[in-house]
Amino acid sequence: MERGGYIYIITNKNNTVLYVGVTSQLYYRIIEHKEGKYKNSFSAKYNCHKLVYYEFLPSILQAIHREKQLKNWHRTWKINLINEFNPSWDDLTEKAKDMV
């Protein structure tokens, strides 16, 4: 049985850099970003560890497809998506913890 997956957008403290990712375990993946687990990654280089958007999809394949779709979006479209979901751009990591 497949458990699904999440696509997510993280940013830096000034909300100037956006990173789109996919995972099956949202909270644990965000903690990896916050702890800088992958030192040479894009998110580590630009200090992206603030979770501002996420979506759950019933299949990891659907999540991967959605991630690729969002990565091809214009920045403005991503900002609009975040503004609809999280208008104050709060860090949603604690909310993700509740979904573990």
Distance between the termini: 18 Å
Summarize model confidence as the mean pLDDT. Answer: 95
What would the CATH topology be? GIY-YIG endonuclease
CATH architecture: 3-Layer(aba) Sandwich
Report the top-level CATH class.
Alpha Beta
- Gross morphology is globular
Computed over alpha carbons, the radius of gyration is 13 Å
Query: What amount of the residues lies in strands?
Result: 15-25%
What does this structure look like?
The protein is an alpha+beta fold and 100 residues long. The chain has one domain (5-97): GIY-YIG endonuclease. The chain is 42% helix and 21% strand. The protein contains five helices and three strands. The protein has a three-stranded antiparallel sheet with strand order 2-1-3, sandwiched between helices. The longest helix is centred in the middle third of the chain and has 12 residues, at 60-71.
Features:
100 residues; 3 strands; GIY-YIG endonuclease; alpha+beta; 42% helix
Summarize it.
It is built from five helices and three strands.
Spell out the blueprint of helices and strands.
Layout: E1 5-11, E2 18-23, H1 26-35, H2 42-45, E3 50-57, H3 60-71, H4 75-85, H5 93-97
Antiparallel strand pairs: 1-2, 1-3
